[in-house]
Amino acid sequence: MNEEKILFVDDDINILDGFKRTLRRKFQVETAVGSIQALRKFNESGPFAVVVADLKMPKMDGIEFITKIRKNDLVTPIIVISGNDLIEDALEAIRAGAWDYINKPITDINVLNFSITKSLEKGKLLAQNKEYRDNLEKINEELKKNIRIIDQSSRWSSDKFLLVCPNTKYEDTLLDSLYLQMPFRVYESASRLFHLRQDMLRQLL
Predict the structure, then answer these.
(1) How far is CA 50 from the centre of its chain?
(2) Which of 36, 66, 101, 192 has the fewest CB atoms within 10 Å, i.e. is most exposed?
(3) Phi then psi for 26, rounded to 5 degrees?
């Protein structure tokens, strides 16, 4: 069985039971009766690899359900199924944030299997891209921060202050180590720095 959790949403319990019987050997199938229960399960039991939702449901239809999910989640694949064979419904679902639209009754389960599999592949790629972007943004912020520190340190008067990194074997000042966020201390005299270096060398020997 695949480890991905798939959330099926429909107001018809018999349809949900059919999905569970048919797909439980391939996926971890969870079901929700109606959109309100589905939203609660999505927030409390997620993340889900794919959401498969009916379009026409009471109290909250599939379009509103998708819109609420997309307010906080732009990555999770959503597949819409509907008994209305109308191009307008399909377009509205896609504009709301659905990735695919399947007509029901689903006479060939392979159609749904194919859609879920493709959605899983695309979802993994989007998740990886988001992780890469987040990491790049974090690195950029660190670089900006370190550039500001280096820029500030370059303005300090060299005859009053000396920088030293107490966790390095080297005696020379290493401004490049700011990128590694190593602890720096400020000492007011060359004499204090000299004695500190001697203590450091004795500890290392």
Answers:
(1) 15
(2) 192
(3) -105, -30
Supply the DSSP symbol for 120: H
Which two structure tokens, joined as six digits, stand for 186?
């400020």
> Model pTM greater than 0.70?
no
- Are the C-beta atoms of 63 and 92 separated by less than 8 Å? yes
Tell me the Cα Rg of the chain. 29
d(CA 162, CA 159): 8
Whether the Cβ atoms of residue 48 and residue 5 lie closer than 8 Å to each other: yes
For residue 152, what pLDDT band results from cuts at 50, 70 and 90?
low
End-to-end CA distance of the chain: 58
Residue 205 burial (10 A CB sphere; 0-12, 13-18, 19+):
exposed
The DSSP bridge pattern shows strands 100-103 and 78-82 to be parallel
Q: Could you read off the pLDDT of 24-80 as tens digits, one per residue?
A: 888 899 999 999 999 999 999 888 999 999 998 988 889 999 999 999 888 899 999
Contact criterion met (CB below 8 Å) for 54 and 9: yes
Q: Which stretch, 10-24, 80-94, 143-157, 169-183, has highest mean pLDDT?
A: 10-24
